[in-house]
Inverse folding.
């Protein structure tokens, strides 16, 4: 019985790692505008290996947020090309994404902060992944959006106890800041990181000011800004930790990606893999039957060769 359970667990882990590797290759291939044959080839292999149902394809966007482009493509391949997302708003009306966008901007322009935040969370909860076109529209209207989002984040930071809902809401709101590239966004994120580090000496599991702020997601938002003003703030945060800590390593990667102009990746997921490599776990569980190759240097080595 124990052996059967172990073998079943190993099969599941193998499948998960195989899917992760496929999605990683596909996400890279999408950005190679001159090489659609490679994308088609990998997609054919993916479809041969995985026969996702529409529901499974939808869940991929939540399970693998570091691969937003390919998971959206896989989901949309299960829907009618002419069909728009539909979202149920707070007034229990079904509205299309385009209607949602225009309505959202009107709400922001009218200064109705609470309703804007409520509708944004409705979108997040209904479709899981915020399409790039929404961030583009918000970016064009940042004058009326940023102050609303920053106020909403600061309001939630006042909840000084561990709360999954508050944590999730701050994370979703930070994603808006991260995707609206401007000095105001960068300055807010830099200040938030500085204040986070100032308070870290008073950390405790119950009552800590920044208990609901995801450190790695904050760094990821700073990387998305691609503003080199953030590098010194990230290095200051890095130096608080010992070199063997995951926090130190991820700070170095974040600073390196800004320095080299590489906004790809999703640091929260990468931090988990760096801390607990899934391949290494599978190797241990299989009694060294599973071959594990440490690819850390291949993925991140260039960021540790920079003088920061």
């Amino acid at each position: 019985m124990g052996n059967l359970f172990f073998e079943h667990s190993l099969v599941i882990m193998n499948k998960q790692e195989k899917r992760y590797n496929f999605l990683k290759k596909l996400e890279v291939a999408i950005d190679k505008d001159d090489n659609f044959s490679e994308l088609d080839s990998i997609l054919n292999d993916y479809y041969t290996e995985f026969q996702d149902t529409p529901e499974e394809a939808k869940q991929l966007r939540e399970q693998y947020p570091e691969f937003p482009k390919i998971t959206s493509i896989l989901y949309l391949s299960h829907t009618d090309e002419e069909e728009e997302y539909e979202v149920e708003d707070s007034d229990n009306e079904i509205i299309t994404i385009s209607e949602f966008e225009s309505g959202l901007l009107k709400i922001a322009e009218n200064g109705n902060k609470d309703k804007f935040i409520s509708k944004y969370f409705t979108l997040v909860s209904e479709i899981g992944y915020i399409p790039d076109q929404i961030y583009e529209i918000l970016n064009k209207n940042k004058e009326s959006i940023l102050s609303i989002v920053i106020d909403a984040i600061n309001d939630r930071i006042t909840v000084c106890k561990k709360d999954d809902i508050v944590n999730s809401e701050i994370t979703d709101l930070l994603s808006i800041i991260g995707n609206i590239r401007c000095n105001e966004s960068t300055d807010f994120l830099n200040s938030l990181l500085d204040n986070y580090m100032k308070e870290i000496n008073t950390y405790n599991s119950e009552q800590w000011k920044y208990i609901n702020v995801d450190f790695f997601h904050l760094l990821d938002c700073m990387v998305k800004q691609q503003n080199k003003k953030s590098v010194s703030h990230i290095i200051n945060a890095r130096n608080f930790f010992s070199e063997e800590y995951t926090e130190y390593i991820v700070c170095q990667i974040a600073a390196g990606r800004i320095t080299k102009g590489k906004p790809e990746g999703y640091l929260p997921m990468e931090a988990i893999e760096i801390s607990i490599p899934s391949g290494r776990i599978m190797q241990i569980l299989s009694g060294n039957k599973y071959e594990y190759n440490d690819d850390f240097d291949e993925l991140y080595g260039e960021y540790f060769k920079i003088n920061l």
About this structure: The two ends are 53 Å apart (CA to CA). The longest helix spans residues 2-30.
